[in-house]
Fold this protein.
Amino acid sequence: MIHIKQSHDCDVLIIGAGPAGAVAAYYLARAGVNVWLLDKQSFPRDKVCGDFVGPVGLVELLRMGVVRDIDYQKSNKINYASLFLNADEIVSTNIPVMNNLPAYGRVIPRKQLDHWVLDAACSAGARFMDGYEFKQLEYSHDAVIATVARGKQSTKLRARLLIAADGSNSRVARIFRGYRPPDKDRIVAVRAYYENVEEPSDRADLYFNAASFPGYCWLFPTGEGTANVGVGVAAQTMPDSKPGLKQLLQHLVENDQALARRLQNARLVGKVAGWPLTTYDHRLPIVWDRLMLTGDAAGLINPLNGEGIQYALLSGRWAAYYAAWGLNNDQLKQSNLLAYTQTVEQELRYDMAVSNMIVQLIRNRTLNPVWLRALQIIGTAAREQPGYASIAGGVLAGLIPASNLLGYEIIAGSIKQAAISLGGEALQKSITDPLGFLRAGLDLGNTGLKIAYESMRNTGSNMEWGTGVVASATELANQVYRDVGRAH
């Protein structure tokens, strides 16, 4: 039998030209690979996001030369961050210097950032095709074949390898996994832009409020007098809570006094826009034969803070490295591409396990009084213990892994501050206000009764929540065990 070898349109076809896809295209093109980059939208285009790029992400942009752009140099620097709880400032700290990374972040609207990264990819030799929407995939013995449509016309493109970077609602991922991401792996958020925002312009604010917890609100200045303001919550909480996020954001803008102070003279620019995020789940595959997922399509979103840009940039570079190796050696089966999965897990899985454990715990809104009190204790410890503040601030900024939250300094500092805060308050009230001490005891008892009542009323949800906590704890314990094993 004579086999006629069919030609390929390109070596690598990348679906989605956001940061993950464009970074992969940049490195592959630099390596001499014939890479096509498709997106259903034309650039520059807006993307709903918090817009904060942490120090790790800035280093990735430096690798690509994006920082030489004049507009990049004009983008807004963030030097420090403040954390508020029910309108009270509980900690304000500089972004720490760690691992030779920049001691600052930048707030860069995605309309600019994504366009810069795409330009870098095109300058390196990648071919960009806008207006094409991915529809379906099929295989031949030596290629992956993507059906794409532009308007009413569809065409089939043959490539040796396909990289999917088509976002949290990835059509490619759904085709191969056979289902959408479960709600437990979802964060939903909305954001808006404001002008005439009060200074300082180099400070990012996080607002925790009983009305939005276990989510949080943010204010990230995009320049002098302008800011990205938004709120995000876990899609699945217990008891079942489905807040209207636009209404929730408006409520916080009007009623959270700390946020209201910065927006007292501000004016909304444009519309409030929302989007879902799929968070990391190590059980979901991210490679198949001749196929790799990157960025949001691979679920590379930190469930604790919603950070995704730096993971998109990193995963794009990692995917390009293993894709180039596979192409050069004609080793493009799933078993060959698992090295990419292993890199993602080695770099991110422990960090994500810690973050996911925290998020699983606070999904139970019945226990909000406990979580908010714990947050207050953590904030006080960060304010009074410099080493503690550096670690906590580094985790929030994406500078250091969340696994550092399990270190001795954080655990000991939290226990110490809890003893000081709770014991000191009890002692002070018992001396200065015996009746107040009694009332506090009664309030605590009432809170306990309310928690018990809600727990009995939502038995099924509690069991589901408990199962999730146990699963998260097991995953975290496994990662701790592996980390200890590597250390020895």
